[in-house]
Amino acid sequence: MAVMTDIDQVVYQRPESLTEVSTSYCPGCTHGIAHRLVAEVIDEMNQRESTIGVASVGCSVFSYLFLDFDFAQAPHGRAPAMATGIKRVLPEKLVFTYQGDGDLASIGMGEIIHAAARSENITVIFINNTNYGMTGGQMAPTTLPGQITTSSPGGRDVESMGMPIRTAELLSAVDGASYVVRRSLHDAKHIRQAKKAIRTAFEVQAHGLGFSMVELLSSCPTNWGIHPVASMKVIEEKMIPYYPLGDYKVHSAVESLL
Hints:
Layout: H1 31-44, E1 51-55, H2 63-66, E2 70-73, H3 79-89, E3 94-100, H4 101-107, H5 109-117, E4 123-128, H6 158-161, H7 167-172, E5 177-184, H8 188-206, E6 211-217, H9 221-224, H10 228-242, E7 246-250
Parallel strand pairs: 1-2, 1-3, 3-4, 4-6, 5-6
Antiparallel strand pairs: 5-7
């Protein structure tokens, strides 16, 4: 056992809201980083006993294995609807969904749009890795133009397959949304910025200010077919130019929280 001395300083320890279960995610996947940030924020807000997460379908479904507080499992795309019901029945709870791009921006598009339009007082953590991660790397609504996937082996042809959906920009146009931002998980600087945004999103809910969403640009090196280190460059050089980082909707009532 290590002995602490006067000059020792703890710079990091596992958040209480993060379980000790070994990760099941692929090497280089940034889901684990997103989990850690959510856990740290919940601990810092002292909300572990008051938080309820809603897991979606996809790789994001495993979130309840790693986040150590109450969770519910939603059908594919229906996490915002389930979170709406939970929050309305238990308004004192901090309720959030954890969703991937295939779940949120495809089968769940109707759910997320109307949750924002109703200004449901919930928080959405949206993981955008430009493909259906769990089911084999098929093209998703967020797949980049020309990007090769298992269902677009010649690359996404926008003339026949349509353009990718920029979800943050889309939801920012909905009057009921209060806080909609996009961040990235590709390096330490942007991870710190992502954590700050997640904290703000939860504070928006805690203050009863309505719908909030944090989109996180994330990696999927296994389905992208590249080395984990190279996947960070893909986020920086290919994803961010198409999905610019920034604050897309900050209601005036939210500005005091920034």
